[in-house]
Design a protein that fits this description.
Chain lengths: 127, 359
């Protein structure tokens, strides 16, 4: 059974988001995603400062068995990337909610409210 | 409806992540694929390979049948128990399947074929038999389960759990098999490590699996099996070769015997076409992961990766690739990954065996 913390928002494509006090969002992949992928061995992160429209591929996580795209959960500009996670991809397997991948400044702060609630994500991940 | 091996419930009880593999519901890992991989290179792991299909070929004409059926020459099988790796070809020289043939006694052979191709293979064998009108029986043995125990400590673990088989297997050389009571024990495998592949009646399989687990043998899924065979430079049917690929273009020339005038299916096509492509290993020098179907850019033209992954032993990405003739070991090539050109080195296609990196 994978973990779905109650204080985060989610996407159907298995990203999690946390709204920070400064208005940026921190993004990672869910526990369900890391479990489905298996041992991660490579993470390709976006450039800081790059702008992405919602649902565009912006990062790649690769496990021993497969490569998976990570999508921009909302439109915005990348403000930070977690190089520690890229240097140690297994940290995402250990704790997918601690090993964040990147932070974004949303174009439109209201977009955050439209993301999936934990229960809705759980239901979509189980489907 | 997916087919299940007799160990399906045992895999689920161990928390395996299950996948559809060639129509079979099989464990891909029991947690960490990389830990399972290391267990086999460093200690001992076990795989349920009961989805593969043993087929007994028995009768006075068994040897003559196999001599025409496969591209390797069963004349090499003289010592009882000896095993031979071979490709079964179509008339165009493409690979219908790759298989292992065990010679048990004159007129008695056992062939083991891949899971996803088993039905096709059995039909193919029956069709050839009808065409050649030989005196033998083809008997698929779905009444047998198969457990591969692999790793430097595999033999000791098997003897600990099945002490009654030790006397029969202690002197077993690599690539041989022996029948010990209800157990058919072969010193073959798909990992590049020592160990046994054990066939046994399905009703005994759960007990053996549980006893090996209790003895500390790590259950390993098809994920680790794939990275282990890739490091060992062993081909995977459907990926590295198929019905449209000649064994000569898949690094399997060593399994094709053109000595004498033995008339096996596909021979004329192989002789007429010869080798068109090279088949070599790649080690990625830049960061990323090599995957099948990625394009390889070389000084001699384009090639293609047929199998690629991350190598837990080498801690970098490796691949098997079909490349233009002319590309040589030591060359530097580029691989196109998501529109980027990443640097890779061409190596002999054996990356790690017996616990050691070889590149």
């Amino acid at each position: 059974m994978s973990l779905v913390p109650a204080d985060l928002k989610y996407t159907a494509s298995h990203e999690w988001l946390r709204l920070e006090a400064d208005g940026t969002v921190t993004v990672g992949i869910t526990d369900h995603a890391q479990e489905a992928l298996g041992d991660l061995v490579y993470i390709e992160l976006p450039e800081v400062g790059a702008h992405f429209a919602a649902d565009k591929e912006l990062a790649v996580v690769e496990s021993v068995k497969a490569a998976a795209d990570v999508y921009a959960p909302l439109s915005g500009t990348v403000t930070a990337v977690n190089q520690d996670a890229a240097d140690a991809p297994e940290s995402v397997n250990r704790d997918a909610y601690a090993a964040w991948l990147f932070k974004m400044k949303p174009d439109n702060a209201a977009d955050f409210a439209g993301l999936l609630e934990p229960a809705a994500y759980q239901a979509s991940a189980d489907a | 409806m997916l087919k299940k091996t007799v160990l399906n419930a045992a895999h689920r009880a161990l928390g395996a992540r299950m996948v559809d593999f060639g129509g079979w519901d099989m464990p891909v890992n029991y947690g960490s694929q990389i830990e399972e991989h290391h267990a086999v290179r460093r200690d001992c792991g076990m795989f349920d390979v009961s989805h593969m299909c043993p087929i007994d070929i028995a009768g006075p004409a068994a040897r003559a049948f196999l001599a025409r059926l496969v591209a390797n020459d069963v004349a090499k099988l003289r010592a009882p128990g000896k095993a031979l790796y071979a490709c079964m070809l179509n008339p165009s020289g493409g690979v219908v399947d790759d298989l292992i043939i065990y010679f048990l006694a004159e007129g008695r052979f056992r062939v083991v074929v891949n899971a996803g191709t088993a039905d096709k293979d059995i039909r193919w064998m029956h069709d050839r038999l009808a065409e050649w009108k030989l005196d033998l029986a083809i008997t698929p043995r779905r009444d047998l389960a198969m457990i591969a125990v692999q790793g430097p400590n595999a033999r000791a673990k098997v003897w600990q759990v099945l002490p009654e088989t030790e006397a029969a297997t202690r002197e077993l050389k690599p690539f041989f098999a022996v029948e010990a009571g209800d157990y058919f024990i072969a010193s073959t495998g798909y990992t590049g490590e020592d160990g046994y592949e054990i066939m046994l009646p399905t009703e005994r399989a759960e007990a053996l699996w549980a006893a090996l687990h209790a003895a500390g043998v790590a259950p390993c899924g098809l994920g680790a099996r794939d990275t282990l065979r890739l490091e060992a430079g062993m081909n995977l049917y459907g990926q590295d070769m198929d019905e449209n690929i000649s064994p000569l273009d898949a690094g399997l020339a060593w399994t094709v015997s053109l000595d004498g005038d033995r008339d096996f299916v596909g021979r004329a096509a192989l002789v007429a076409t010869g080798q068109q492509r090279g088949f070599l290993g790649l080690v990625l020098l830049d960061k990323g992961v090599l995957r099948s179907h990625q394009t390889v850019l070389t000084a001699w033209g384009e090639g293609e990766i047929t199998s690629g992954s991350f190598s837990p032993t080498l801690q970098q990405s490796i691949a098997l690739a079909r490349l233009p003739r002319g590309v040589a070991v030591g060359d530097e090539v580029h691989v196109l990954i998501r529109d980027k050109r990443l640097k890779a080195k061409v190596v002999k296609p054996v990356f790690a065996r017996h616990g050691k990196a070889l590149v």
